[in-house]
Amino acid sequence: GRGRARDSRHQYGDAADIVVDNNHTGRMDDLNHDGRINSSDMRILAEAVESVERQYPELVGGLGLYRATRSRSPFVHVDVRGVRARWGRF
To answer: What pTM was computed for the model?
Structure first.
């Protein structure tokens, strides 16, 4: 698709795009309960990924933050590519 990497980690089965949607709205939840859904909520997920990587270094990989657009919720990309990679605003 447009705007996607040709050799995406998703094709290799070692990546996931994460949206926490416990209230079933189809969009990211307000994880920090500040009344807004924004990069602060994504940072909560990013901190969880960082924690897992510290505890399990063999799972090191990519972490990308993607902001919301008109057509989609913000989300966090995670993969286990074997080397640390970060993109998006942290």
So the answer is: 0.82
